[in-house]
Each structure stands twice: as structure tokens, then as C-alpha cells.
């Protein structure tokens, strides 16, 4: 027990004094969070830029009756020259040019920017439909109308940061787990420290246990830093009430990554070899596990691969408890799978453990 | 117990190379035992097999009556080892390093600090391991080997990187350790060190033990000639030849006139009679000569 504590202390001190690994385990993933968070921040909330040619009754009515919606939906410039307005759209300086002739609203849009065109078309359709519906109701007040009440299932304030935080946090923990275990083993072995420890009253479980505690502590620091930064007003992460369930998820997840790192550490002979091999495992795993983009967008083969990735289960579980607000027990299957992964890979690591290279 | 180490017919091959080739020796409890030999002789390999770090291909090792291979936790507390290449925890200071090792052996940090003082590193206590000089790191490594007061100490070239002062200090330390009744086994390339410290030495080459005995006995058994020199110019060539007689050999290099003889008393008496003792130096055979005779090569550092 005493040996375990001393080794843990020595390893932890060595870790926090190593600027490079501190950077790669804490700052580097955080940079991704900051960059992605800023990149995706205002997506979908900017109003459609339209050029209004002449009088367009539907738009004018909307402005008079519901100025707030009008402001939120459209950014209108006026023009009397249809050709000039269409040219503006062609250049991409506006999303659509709109004119109205009697009961026909004409919309000129560009196929070059499909997303914005789709948004502006459906918005204008919606506005026109609403106007029509209102007139019909005035004409026939007895006829019941069906309306759709849209409700987003997530928190109202859901934004990119809600998806990014769990995914990038899972990735960060995988980096520190895999690299930490692999590098320590290879380092200590190549510097002959493991052979020196072999002569001391220290057992393999104590050496590995020390590595585990340092990684678990690191994962908790990462969790705190990530939540802290993502919760800043600029990013605006809002956690659900069961976010603390992320702690056990990250703890078992770290064990899974450590086991993986120990196998790599047993295979590799040099520090460079270990970090290369660790990269070869961690980077594809991050892509195949939805750390950077949702797996729904991934091709089928990638989704298939994701089933064997421990990071996938961590990301799923983190998203579920931190953002979707599912109850704590709902992530038990993921935790179970992670434990199973740890046991299998950990057993392999145990069998492969070497004190030295001789 | 009388015998601390008993090694019988040890062999270890690396590919075609017989690193250790039929080595046998015994070290008694409380003895100071040295292993000498040129680079690549198999000293480190032998030592590490005895410590339980390497598995021999064949042969028997008894260490304090136990088998060191595979790992024997019972031995850990009783032996102290300084490896040829120092092994430390990254980015820890000298004091943290030693305290960590002390804690691993269940020894107080006061004892660790005391050890730091003993090897003269107190003023380097807060220096990170990466910033220590070669000799300082070596002293720290020795302190780590001794911190838990082991009854059997293995030191692989402990003075290799030390300056003369630190070397003398370490000799004193090792003599103290040994006079407490502890067994010390060391390898060295310094013949003076072996002569001054060791009760017995084993001279190895190419994986084999060539001879084992006390340094004094080895030197005596060599029956080597004694070199007697005086300053040139006090004796003419004829006079010198007269002193030398048939038995001794004379050589004058312009600075020194040197007699090489197996009967030094006769030469010295003759020189004294002629009052030709200016710049007198007498050099008897040393372990170095034994080494040279046995391995057929100059000692290479
Ligand atoms: N792990 C190994 N793999 C292959 N060859 C080895 C290994 N360890 C030692 N050898 C070889 O065995 C021989 C003996 O090596 P050893 O380290 O025991 O020599 P030594 O007497 O300690 O030399 P030195 O004075 O240089 O420390 C050398 O020729 C060395 O190249
Ligand atoms: Mg050696």
C-alpha cells in the first residue's frame, strides 16, 4: 500500500512537471472545443437576407402585424430593379430576391447555396401559408384547422457546444489514458527504471495501480476543466441534472483506455514507437466514435467499426447523461460494455507485461 | 549463515556470444568481493544473474540461501543494488527520488535525507534528476541502493564517473558498510580500488573467471620483477652493470636509470653503498600487472 502511494506520487509529480504531456492531455483537446465551439456557435440563427423588389404584400403585412418575427426571420433590403436584385442573389450577396404580382409571390434563389436557399424558401412558404390560413379562417370561422406544435426534445438552448463537449471530453480522456499508460511503461522500461523496481519490494499490481490512479485523477481534472470552459457564457454549455453520472462513465472509460495503452506499451520498444502506435489507435477511434461529428453523418462501414470502439460507448453515455438528461441507470449497458472491454484487453496486457527489454 | 552467494557453473549466451561461460564462485558473509575484467568480460551479466534480473541458461545461483530467479520478493529487502546505468523517476528532484525509494522499502524520509548527506548531495536536494552531473547521479544511485540498509550490496562500477575526492569518500563509505558485517560485491576497472577495498577479487575475461584470490596473494603469486629507479647520471654504465650483476636488467632512458630485478634487497643495498639514491623510486608488482599477465591486455577504461 505504501509502495503504491509512493509510486503514484512520483508518477503524478512526473506528469504535472511534464509540460508537453500536460499540453496534449489538457490544452490540446480544449483547443478543439474552443475552435469548434466558436465555429458552430451561431449556425441556423442568422436571418435570411432577401432583396424585396417593389411591394410585397406578404412581407409588409408580416412587418406590420408581427415585427418581432419579421426581424428575426428576414434581413430585408429594398430595390426597384429586378435584374439587379437577381444579380445580387447570383453573386451570393443575398439569399433570395422576392417580388409579388397579385396573388403570386416570385422567389429568385441560387442553387449554388442549397442550405440557405432551402431555409429562405421554406421560411417564405411558411409566411405565405400562414397568411392564407388567416384569410381562410376569417372567411370560414367554423371550420376547425389542424396546427402543428413543434417542440425540440433537447433543452431549448441546445447548441453545438452541447454535442461537442461530451465527444471531445471522451477523446481527451482517451488520449491521456492510452498515451499515458503506453508512454510510462515504455519510458520506465527503456530507462531501466522497471528493472530497478523489480528488485524493490514492489509488485506488478502496485506499479500498474499507480498508473491507474494517476490516469483516473487526470480524467477528473479533464472533466472539471472541460465543464468549466464550456460553461463560460461565450460557449454556454448547460448541463442536465444527472451530469455527475459522467464521473463513473469516465472512470471505467479510463480503465479501458489504460488497458489499451498497456498493450501498446508492451508491444512498443521506444517512446516514439509507443506514441506512433497510440496515435494509430486513438485518431481513427475518435473519428469512428463520433467525437468530432455525430455518427449519424458517418458512412455505414464507419458505424460498423464504431461498435468495437470503447470511445463510442463513452461518448454515447456522456451525451446521454450530460446533455440529453437521461436518468443515470440508462447508461448501465455502456458501462457494462466498457468493463467487459477492460477485462479482456487488461488480461492481454497483463500477459504481455515485461520488466525489461533483455 | 556463512556463505552469502554461491554461484555454480553459470552460463548465459546471447546468440553466438557466450557472455557468461561457466562461472563459479562463492562469497562469504561479510566479505568485500570484487569482479575485475575488461569491457565485455561478462561482469554485469554475471552480477545481474546473481541479483535475479536475468535468467541464466544454465547453472545455479544461491543468494542468501534462496533462488533469485524468477523474482523473489523475500530477497528485495535484504539486497541493495546499484545498476551500471542509473535508473530514476523522471522529473523528480534528488531528494524526492531518494525519498521515493526509501518509501518503497518502508524506510523513513529522515533516513533518506541522511543518506543524501552521506553521499554529499545535500546542496543538490532540490535539483531535478535530469540536471545532475554524471557523478552526482551515480552518487544518488548508490544512495538509493544503500538507503534500506541491506545486508548484501551489489555495486556495478560505482566509482566509474566519480572525481578522485568523491571516489575516496565512497571508499570510506563502502568500508564502513562492510565493517558493519555487510557483504559487498562490486565490479570495477580501477586496480587500486580493488587492491584497497576487496578481500578477494575475481578476474574475468570472455565470460570466464580466470582467477580468484586476495589481491595481495595474486600479486605475490605473480613473482613479478620489482622496478627500482634512480635519477640518471649518478652511476656510469659500467657501475650500473656492476650493481645489476647477472640477475637484474638495467635500462637508462636519460632521465631514470631503472633496474628490473627479482632481488630488490641486493640492488638497494648496493645502491646505498654507493650513495646513489637520488630520485629513488621502487615500484613492486600491482594488481595491474596481474591483470595484464592474465588477460594479456592493457586495462582499458
Ligand atoms: N542483452 C544483451 N543482448 C546481447 N548481448 C549482450 C546483452 N547483454 C550483454 N551482452 C553481451 O555480453 C557481453 C558481456 O557484457 P557485460 O555487460 O556483462 O560486460 P561487462 O563485463 O559488464 O562490461 P563493461 O566493463 O563494459 O561494463 C558483451 O559482449 C555484451 O555485448
Ligand atoms: Mg558492465
UniProtKB/TrEMBL annotation, chain A:
ABC transmembrane type-2 domain segment(s): 117-356
GO CC annotations, alphabetized: membrane
GO molecular function: ABC-type transporter activity
Cell location: Membrane
UniProt keyword Transmembrane present: yes
Transmembrane feature ranges: 20-40, 168-188, 208-230, 242-264, 276-295, 331-353
The UniProt record lists the keyword Transmembrane helix: yes
Topological relation to the membrane, as annotated: Multi-pass membrane protein
Protein's recorded name: ABC-2 type transport system permease protein
From TrEMBL, chain B:
GO BP terms in the entry: response to antibiotic
Domain ABC transporter: 5-231
Molecular function in Gene Ontology: ATP binding; ATP hydrolysis activity
UniProt KW tRNA processing keyword: no
Membrane topology: Peripheral membrane protein
Entry annotated with the keyword Transmembrane: no
Family matches, as CDD domains: ABC_DR_subfamily_A (cd03230)
Family under the similarity heading: Belongs to the ABC transporter superfamily.
The name this protein goes by in its record: ABC-2 type transport system ATP-binding protein
Organism from which the protein derives: Stackebrandtia albiflava
Amino acid at each position: 500500500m505504501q509502495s503504491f502511494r509512493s509510486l503514484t506520487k512520483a508518477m503524478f509529480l512526473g506528469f504535472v512537471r511534464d509540460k508537453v504531456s500536460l499540453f496534449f492531455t489538457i490544452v490540446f483537446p480544449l483547443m478543439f472545443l474552443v475552435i469548434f465551439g466558436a465555429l458552430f456557435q451561431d449556425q441556423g440563427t442568422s436571418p435570411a437576407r432577401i432583396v424585396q423588389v417593389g411591394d410585397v404584400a406578404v412581407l409588409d403585412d408580416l412587418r406590420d402585424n408581427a415585427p418581432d418575427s419579421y426581424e428575426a426571420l428576414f434581413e430585408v433590403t429594398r430595390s426597384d430593379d429586378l435584374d439587379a436584385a437577381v444579380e445580387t442573389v447570383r453573386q451570393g450577396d443575398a439569399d433570395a430576391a422576392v417580388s409579388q404580382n397579385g396573388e403570386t409571390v416570385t422567389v429568385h434563389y441560387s442553387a449554388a447555396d442549397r442550405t440557405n436557399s432551402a431555409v429562405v424558401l421554406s421560411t417564405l412558404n411558411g409566411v405565405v401559408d400562414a397568411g392564407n390560413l388567416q384569410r381562410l379562417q376569417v372567411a370560414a370561422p367554423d371550420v376547425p384547422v389542424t396546427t402543428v406544435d413543434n417542440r425540440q426534445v433537447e433543452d431549448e438552448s441546445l447548441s453545438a457546444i452541447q454535442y461537442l463537449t461530451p465527444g471531445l471530453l471522451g477523446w481527451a480522456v482517451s488520449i491521456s489514458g492510452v498515451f499515458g499508460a503506453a508512454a510510462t511503461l515504455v519510458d520506465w522500461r527503456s530507462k531501466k527504471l522497471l528493472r530497478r523496481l523489480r528488485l524493490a519490494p514492489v509488485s506488478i499490481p502496485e506499479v500498474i495501480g499507480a498508473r491507474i490512479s494517476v490516469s483516473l485523477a487526470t480524467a477528473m481534472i479533464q472533466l472539471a476543466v472541460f465543464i468549466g470552459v464550456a460553461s463560460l457564457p461565450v460557449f454556454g454549455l448547460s448541463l442536465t441534472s444527472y451530469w455527475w453520472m459522467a464521473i463513473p462513465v469516465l472512470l471505467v472509460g479510463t480503465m479501458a483506455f489504460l488497458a489499451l495503452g498497456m498493450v501498446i506499451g508492451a508491444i512498443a520498444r521506444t517512446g516514439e514507437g509507443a506514441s506512433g502506435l497510440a496515435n494509430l489507435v486513438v485518431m481513427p477511434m475518435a473519428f469512428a466514435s463520433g467525437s468530432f461529428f455525430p455518427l449519424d453523418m458517418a458512412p455505414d462501414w464507419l458505424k460498423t467499426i464504431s461498435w468495437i470502439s470503447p470511445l463510442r460507448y463513452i461518448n454515447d453515455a456522456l451525451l446521454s447523461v450530460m446533455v440529453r438528461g437521461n436518468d443515470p441507470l440508462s447508461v448501465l449497458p455502456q458501462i457494462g460494455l466498457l468493463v467487459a472491454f477492460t477485462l479482456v484487453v487488461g488480461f492481454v496486457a497483463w500477459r504481455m507485461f515485461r520488466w525489461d527489454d533483455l | 549463515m556463512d556463505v552469502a552467494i554461491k554461484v555454480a557453473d553459470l552460463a548465459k549466451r546471447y546468440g553466438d556470444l557466450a557472455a557468461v561461460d561457466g562461472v563459479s564462485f562463492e562469497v562469504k558473509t561479510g566479505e568485500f568481493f570484487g569482479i575485475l575484467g575488461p569491457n565485455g568480460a561478462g561482469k554485469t551479466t554475471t552480477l545481474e544473474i546473481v541479483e535475479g534480473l536475468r535468467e541464466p541458461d544454465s547453472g545455479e545461483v544461491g543468494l542468501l540461501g534462496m533462488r533469485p530467479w524468477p523474482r523473489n520478493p523475500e530477497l528485495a529487502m535484504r539486497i541493495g543494488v546499484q545498476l551500471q546505468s542509473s535508473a530514476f523517476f523522471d522529473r523528480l528532484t534528488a531528494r524526492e527520488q531518494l525519498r521515493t525509494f526509501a518509501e518503497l522499502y518502508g524506510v523513513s524520509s529522515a533516513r533518506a535525507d541522511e543518506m543524501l548527506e552521506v553521499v554529499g548531495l545535500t546542496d543538490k536536494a532540490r535539483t531535478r534528476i535530469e540536471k545532475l552531473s554524471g557523478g552526482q547521479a551515480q552518487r544518488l544511485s548508490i544512495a538509493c541502493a544503500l538507503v534500506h540498509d541491506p545486508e548484501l550490496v551489489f555495486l556495478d562500477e560505482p566509482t566509474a564517473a566519480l572525481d578522485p575526492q568523491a571516489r575516496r569518500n565512497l571508499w570510506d563509505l563502502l568500508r564502513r558498510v562492510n565493517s558493519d558485517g555487510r557483504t559487498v560485491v562490486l565490479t570495477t576497472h580501477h586496480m587500486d580500488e580493488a587492491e584497497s577495498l576487496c578481500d578477494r577479487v575475481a578476474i574475468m575475461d570472455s565470460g570466464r573467471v580466470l582467477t580468484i584470490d586476495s589481491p595481495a596473494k595474486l600479486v605475490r603469486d605473480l613473482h613479478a620483477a620489482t622496478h627500482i629507479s634512480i635519477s640518471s647520471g649518478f652511476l656510469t654504465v659500467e657501475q650500473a652493470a656492476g650493481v645489476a650483476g647477472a640477475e637484474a636488467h638495467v635500462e637508462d632512458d636519460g632521465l631514470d636509470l631503472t633496474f628490473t630485478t627479482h632481488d630488490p634487497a641486493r640492488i638497494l643495498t648496493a645502491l646505498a653503498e654507493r650513495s646513489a639514491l637520488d630520485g629513488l623510486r621502487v615500484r613492486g608488482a600491482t594488481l595491474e600487472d596481474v591483470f595484464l599477465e592474465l588477460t594479456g591486455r592493457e586495462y582499458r577504461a
